[in-house]
């Protein structure tokens, strides 16, 4: 059960899709409850509109699912376990339905409070980050007794903020398409540096741009910043004047692999990151 599944440009949706795909490949029956999905095993919900919040979230390619107990009950018929992804009303309702039907359920911690505060430009208010941690626990995570943590960092953060339940550190993993290259396939003598990540406030592609600008090897560096997000124009302006124009844009996995095989160095610059894959 997840708020956003169709748009694969945000990390949670991509993780959910990989989780779904991997379980299917191992012979399990998997059902998905989310907005705007269709097909066998998919149970579509309407989008939930939250004034102001929805407008901000859509810029990050994130939407909210409108809880529908009838659809949830239908999706849960005969299942062995329910997995919920985010601390919002849809997942909270899913837990309620699972408990009523006496179906085991587990959850995950994918959304850090800083993801919210950075995108409303209040990241420097530490008390607000603490408040959101408390609100997540009070409103949602107190009902979860088994929590998937994508990294030791997330587990440590939950323990630091007094979260209960048993915590399991399991990597979100990566697509099997990303296999080790036999050799660098670039066709020039430039030094290619790449980062893959959303163009959003919690990432920090600017530091890479400035590093290239200040490098004594700037005339030999081609920087690739692949992704999508609301800060594209800001980053493009920041990158003006580099010897080689920065390569911006979103790539599908197969095209991204081709580019990665041509690069010399991967750098992940972010102020907030639960697990950088």
From TrEMBL:
Q: Name one GO molecular function term.
A: glycosyltransferase activity
**UniProt keyword list:** Transferase
Residue ranges annotated as transmembrane are none
Matching entries from Pfam families are given as: Glyco_transf_4 (PF13439), Glycos_transf_1 (PF00534)
Domain named Glycosyl transferase family is located at 182-276
Where in this chain does the record put each Glycosyltransferase subfamily 4-like N-terminal domain? 10-176
Instruction: List each coiled-coil range.
Output: none
Q: What is this protein called?
A: Cholesterol alpha glycosyltransferase
Q: What's the source species for this entry?
A: Helicobacter heilmannii
